[in-house]
Amino acid sequence: MRYRSLSAIKHAVGILLAIAIFNTGAWARTLYVKADATGTDPTGLTWEDEDAFTVIQDAMDAATDEDEIWVAKGTYYVPASLATSEAVLTMKDGVAVYGGFYGTEENLSERDLTTNETKLDGNGESYHVVVGASNAVLDGFTITGGNAAGDDPDDNGGGVYNKDVSNLVISKCIIENNSANDGGGIYNYYYSTPTVTNCILRNNSAYRGGGMFNNESTPEITNCTFNGNSADDRGGGIYSYDNSSPVITNCILWGDSAGTSGNEIYDTGSSSSDVEYSDVQGGYTGAGNINQNPQLESELHLSPDSPCIDHGTEAGAPSDDIEGFERPSGLYPDMGAYEYQFSTGTCWISLVCPVSVSENSPIICEIAYNGSECADTLSLGINNTCAGATVTDDLDGTGSYNAPEQGEDAGPGSCVAEVQMVADGESDSEIVTINEAEAGPSFYLEFGNERIYVYITPLEDTEVDRYIIYYSSVEKDLNSDPPTSNSETVDYCGTHEEEAEISIKSIATECKYTIEGLNNGVTYYVRVRAVDTSDDESELSEIKSVTPQETQTLMDAIGESGGCAATSPGRDADIAGTLLMCFIWALSFAALRRRLIHARRVK
Hints:
The chain is mainly beta. Helix content is about 10%, strand content about 35%.
């Protein structure tokens, strides 16, 4: 009887474990949806006509956490069982839904989003085409026809409505022709944190935030294109309100409009957009941003002459684009949802130069070209309004151009140079603005063991609050403004403290800063700028370089003579001076020793 009880217990435990495993998602399923399926009692477990769902919402209702829903090409409307103002799709937490299938695929990688358009259409009646959920995925759909014309909250978010939604991924979607009071394309509210990647938001309209409206939310928007969106009031592209902090990277915001202000981006209510490596019409402050016509072709593809090609950043960029093509295809990721595809079997070239440099600074450009298809001889030149510009290059992957000195009355941006590369009739060019240089902080460098020392002469301006030290082993990283290199922000001659890898010590006539964790034998390039208490920045200093190396002790230098052993500083002149002092010390020590011996003898 005892053994039977033990067996029964084991059996019960096994059942409980199976239930637990099922509930934790180990039995996650893929459910299938086809608009033209014919089954009367679908299970959704195969693509077969008798099994596949015909209504996406039916599949979502049947799904559980970690399930995936694959949707074949076609147009999907509000289910007939619901009022026409309801959503086409109300998502569930933890469920991923993918469009772009033909209806026979066995792997997600087999789908073709261009050929198999999968459309969610509110037909001008749905208040929201999609209602988002947390820890979910919405990928590969055209979302259109939303009309948020109801009462609050149904007057916001015509395309996608997110409230208190975290970790929702919206990827490879075209969100177009939706309307609302706030957020025609996407509405993010109440601490929502969606990630929007490789998406196009176009021709959406609203009173505020034609493309997107953020309220107490922090979306991450990467490699997206905003175009043709409109707002009656503010924020044609994006409107952010009430402590929202959108992070916008590698995006194009061009051709949007607002009736009052902020055609592309408008921030208010303690909101602040962090925008980098993006093409924003009218300009926007941030690393790598440009304000140049993106030269968009049909469906918002990049033309061969687009300045957005190769001008994104690899940090956080997706590995492919909205159509599934590899990203990057050139030197760096492109801006926007589409990655420009260089033709195979033909000559193509790519040239990447800094947006601006200071006078008398080198313009260092990166070059890539299809060497097997291009002529052996490539020509590079500089067409400019800057008298005296010269160019030198050996086509080793970089081109170096000397920016001419500006006249005394020349202001920033007064001189523009066009760097051009030509091969077999193909060409690429970059516009570089050459700014009049103003004095930045004065400094010098010393080397140490896996570190460098930066000595900055304090500026007379008593409002200086801190310094930004830019450093890199690649000189070109320091040519743009702001530089794309590593940087450390340090206090203005503060008392000794440790912060990150920077140690600070106050000196009477100069501020000494130590940058640690570097590689010996590698040359590092350094620039410095000052920032005052109002966050206004000085011009960048000139570029200086130093090479960390193991420091030599004076004991090593003078052998076993004793005394005077210390770590030597990083300047050759100081080493020589210190050795001279130790030599004098040795002579003095020898003279003193002779006197002591003589004194002993006298006694």
